[in-house]
Amino acid sequence: MKFLRVKMCVAFFAALILFSFQPAYWQSKFIKVDQDGTISYIPDEKGNIIPDFSRVGYHKGNRDIPVLPIVKTLSPSGSSTDEAAIQSAINELSKRDPDKNGFRGAILLKKGVYKIPGTIHINASGIVLRGEGDEQYGTKLIATGKDKRNLISISGQGSLAEVTGSRRKIADSYVPVGAFSFMLESASGLKAGDKIVVLRPGTKNWISDIKMDQIVERQGTKQWQAKEYDLHFEREITKIEGNKVFIDNPVVMAMEANYGGGEIYKYSFNNRIAEVGIENMRFESEYANDTDEEHSWIAVEINKAENCWVKNVTSKYFAYSCVSLENDAKFITIRDSKCLDAKSVITGGRRYSFNNDGQLNLFMNLETTEGRHDFVTGAKVLGPNVFYNCKASQTHADIGPHHRWAVGTLYDNVQTDGAINVQDRGKMGSGHGWSGANQVVWNCKAKEAAVQNPWASAKNYCIGFQGKKAGGAFPDRTDGEWEGHNQPGLTPPSLYRAQLEARQNSKEE
Question: CA angle, corner 410, sides to 407 and 415, nearest 5?
Fold first, then answer.
């Protein structure tokens, strides 16, 4: 009996010790998740909330990435170039009529090495370029030669054009961040399904209040000009009630009457392509040495395209990025991919491993090594956009919005051995200034982070961050909305996943 009591005591204290090391689960004061997965958002004094980031990526996350049937198969030639054969197959497929879903089919590149001295272009919808694996002995495309170029370029033509006579003024004096609706002075001529731009104008008094006309100068510094900071958010009308318009993705930059309010207008974008995919292959660039820059810069660049994807790819030795999304790329999903061992001088304008300049895009399950700005946005990048479950190692600079007022990005479960920063970058570059607005850093881990609030019009959030809190380039700037610093157990562990599941459970589109 004595022995039994001893065993019971040992078991009790072992359980007590184990329990004491379990994290205390906690929820943010900004977002509450009920047991059924429903999310409640707690507004600030102006009605702003953390926005819903779940409607990004391929078809807003409402469809799985399709598996297109193979219509043509190629094998490596063993010669100095396979570019012409691949391009010819793409051109041939481009001439076919797409099916009812907009698909033309997949070109399969069998295992082996394909040498590409130039750039492969995909300029038509519904085409997938598929390999047989991104491992060393899978399907490997090598960018040969010394030209600075993209290995694969995916792009339609044309540009966004305002429909004449469709502009309408927003009547509300303040439309908060997170809102899915607002009042117009008149909704005449509008209907559900219309593609619109929600315009948040740049004004002189706004630029002055965020002090971006007062950047401490060095040679080449440019003060921000109001006319350059009109923000054009692409949206779709989901319904109309009188003069109240509902949209498919939230407002991520408050519309403020004292800064010009806001407007909407219908638009067209003729010849923007869609339903293009790159899958299951490896990209490498030839290079002369670790600082060589006379070789391929980007493995896959996408522009003037929507509802496309890149998945299960690995790039090595490129100077700039594995995937770069340009300004007119939207609803793109980049997933399950790696950008490794960049080769370039380690300085500005290089090693942006996964770069996003577009709208409504999703980057998930990514890994990088030897990058500078690994998961990054550029100037005036308009959200929502999401980086989820991404890891960077052997980094040479920080992760986060890089410059000039990127709006509405979620960094969710991002890990790095470097820094994550959302800050005023001042005179860096040619006057980077406030890098990001309404950015959310959720359950991320880094060596250090600086997350600060702009002087006006926006907030930035750092919730559940693990790592050192840093002062940033300007330690006198106001802290962002920090919560749960170095406190494990944040619930939900992923904001993006929780928002997506809540929406899917509610059967919302």
Answer: 130
Mode of pairing for the β-strands spanning 150-155 and 298-303: parallel
Per-residue pLDDT of 169-204, as tens digits, reads 999 999 999 999 999 999 999 999 999 999 999 999
* Global pTM value: 0.94
Average pLDDT, the chain: 95
Find how far residue 117's CA is from the centre of its chain. 30
What secondary structure does DSSP assign to 221-238, as a single string?
-----GGG--EEEEEEEE
Residues 388 and 385: their CA atoms lie apart, in Å, by: 10
The sign of the torsion formed by the CA atoms of 79, 81, 84, 86 equals: positive
Whole-angstrom distance, CA of residue 196 vs CA of residue 184: 13
Q: Enter the tokens of residue 250.
A: 């939230």
Are residues 410 and 387 in contact, defined by beta-carbon separation less than 8 angstroms?
A: yes
Distance CA 384, CA 456 (A): 20
Q: Which domains does the chain have, with CATH numbers?
A: 61-156+272-344+351-362 (2.160.20.10), 161-268 (2.40.30)
Q: Assign 3-class secondary structure to 121-189.
A: EECCCCEEEECCCCCCCCEEEEECCCCCCEEEEEECCCCCEECCCCCEEECCCEECCCCCEEEECCCCC
DSSP letter for each residue of 56-84: -SGGGGTSPPP-PPEEEEE---SSS--HH
Q: How far is CA 22 from CA 149, 401, 488, in A?
A: 51, 34, 9
Contact 328, 352 (CB under 8 A): no
In this structure, how many other beta carbons lie within 10 angstroms of the beta carbon of residue 65? 18
The string of pLDDT tens digits covering residues 282-316 is: 999 999 999 999 999 999 999 999 999 999 999 99
pLDDT reading at 342 higher than 60: yes
How far apart, in whole angstroms, are the C-alpha atoms of residue 449 and residue 470?
A: 5
Q: How far apart are CA 256 and CA 210, in angstroms?
A: 14
Cα-to-chain-centroid distance, residue 31: 22
Q: What's the chain's Rg over C-alpha atoms? A: 24
Q: CB–CB of 323/310 below 8 Å?
A: yes
- Specify whether the CB–CB gap between 350 and 374 falls below 8 A: no
Contacts of 304 (CB under 8 A, 6+ apart): 155, 156, 157, 158, 159, 269, 271, 272, 273, 326, 328, 329
Distance CA 259, CA 203 (A): 6
| 3-state SS track over 382-402 | EEEEEEEEEEEECCCCCEEEC
